[in-house]
């Protein structure tokens, strides 16, 4: 894979800016998107001039809405990839392992697997129009790895469970109050603000920052094992009648009938 199609990658000074470029799908990711994000993060990791990464979405509506549910309804998976694998678990680990802070610039709705991406970033800055939530149980999916366990570390058990069980969307003010984001700024200032934070980090000792990030991570690194289990479970569940009913109902713009397709009790 030589050219980016779903993602753009730019370096400005000591900051790499990675943008998900699928605004027509509210920046939902398919297999290719995930593969390109991995390539972009690895490029940022290898570039010694890069000291922080900003992750954002194209357009004004969405940061990322998680897995491309229309693709899933169409083909039963997240589409072809160069590796033959859907590597979302590896992307999660990479965002944590890259030894440089990753700042999510949340420019709109961050939901489902897109919400998980911003939660995994070191810092999150939101625009005033941003909205946050989990959606899996509405569309036949779940992230029982970092998406639940690490979220609970960030916002607390009660709020994490509320987000997953009710699948509501929360506004930027609530996200700030819950400690889900570090700051909220007007939409027009979001990228400038995120880049300013990244540049400020760029003036600090890269080695000190690297050790600090690894130290913060060490406390929750055991969740990577949980994430492996969760991704294996998800592979089975998304292909089940209950999982497929969620994706099909979304694509057909109807209420899912989970009760008729339930696979386990
Ligand atoms: C995000 C919304 C709440 C926004 O609602 P709003 O009313 O503002 O806008 P629309 O609903 O009209 O959306 C505009 C336009 O974008 C399309 N779109 C939005 N999200 C997606 C998506 N995720 N996939 C494909 N397309 C999307 C939408 O259809 C509209 O297009 P039109 O052509 O009709 O104009 C609302 O859109 C919403 O609830 N979206 C779905 C959110 C969702 O369910 N996300 C997926 C959750 S599951 C997941 O993320 C996931 C993650 C993983 O890591 C996995 C790993 C392994 C297996 C499975 C995984 C997985 O399923």
UniProtKB/TrEMBL annotation:
InterPro entries the UniProt entry points to: ClpP/crotonase-like_dom_sf, DHNA-CoA_synthase_MenB, Enoyl-CoA_hyd/isom_CS, Enoyl-CoA_hydra/iso, Enoyl-CoA_hydra_C
Catalytic reaction annotation: 2-succinylbenzoyl-CoA + H(+) = 1,4-dihydroxy-2-naphthoyl-CoA + H2O
Pfam families with a match to the protein in the record: ECH_1
Domain of life (superkingdom): Bacteria
Enzyme class per UniProt: lyase
Pathway in which this enzyme or protein is active: Quinol/quinone metabolism; menaquinone biosynthesis; Quinol/quinone metabolism; 1,4-dihydroxy-2-naphthoate biosynthesis; 1,4-dihydroxy-2-naphthoate from chorismate: step 6/7
PROSITE patterns, per the entry: ENOYL_COA_HYDRATASE
Keywords, sorted A to Z: Lyase, Menaquinone biosynthesis
Marked site: Important for catalysis: 78
Keyword Repeat on entry: no
Keyword Lyase in record: yes
Amino acids binding substrate: 78, 109-113, 141, 253
Family: Belongs to the enoyl-CoA hydratase/isomerase family. MenB subfamily.
HAMAP family cross-referenced by the UniProt entry: MenB (MF_01934)
Protein function: Converts o-succinylbenzoyl-CoA (OSB-CoA) to 1,4-dihydroxy-2-naphthoyl-CoA (DHNA-CoA).
Stated name of the protein: 1,4-dihydroxy-2-naphthoyl-CoA synthase
């Amino acid at each position: 894979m030589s050219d980016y199609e779903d993602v753009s990658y730019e370096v400005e000074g000591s900051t790499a800016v990675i943008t998900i470029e699928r605004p027509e799908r509210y920046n939902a990711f398919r297999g290719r998107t995930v593969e390109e994000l991995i390539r972009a993060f690895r490029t940022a990791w290898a570039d010694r001039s890069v000291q922080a990464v900003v992750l954002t979405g194209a357009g004004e509506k969405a940061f990322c809405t998680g897995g491309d549910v229309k693709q899933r309804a169409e083909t039963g998976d997240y589409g072809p990839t160069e590796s033959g694998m859907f590597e979302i678990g590896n992307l999660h680990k990479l965002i944590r392992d890259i030894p440089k802070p990753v700042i999510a610039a949340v420019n709109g709705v961050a939901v489902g697997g897109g919400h998980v991406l911003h939660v995994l970033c070191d810092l999150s800055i939101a625009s005033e129009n941003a909205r946050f939530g989990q959606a899996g149980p509405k569309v036949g999916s779940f992230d029982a790895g970092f998406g639940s366990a690490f979220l609970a570390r960030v916002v607390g058990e009660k709020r994490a469970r509320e987000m997953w069980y009710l699948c509501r969307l929360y506004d930027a003010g609530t996200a700030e109050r819950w400690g889900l984001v570090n700051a909220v700024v007007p939409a027009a200032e979001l990228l400038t603000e995120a880049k300013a934070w990244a540049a400020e980090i760029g003036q600090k000792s890269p080695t000190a920052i690297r050790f600090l990030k690894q130290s913060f991570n060490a406390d929750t690194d055991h969740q990577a094992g949980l994430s492996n289990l969760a991704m294996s479970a998800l592979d089975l569940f998304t292909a089940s009648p209950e999982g497929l009913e969620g994706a099909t109902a979304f694509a057909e713009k109807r209420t899912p009938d989970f009760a008729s397709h339930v696979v386990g009790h």
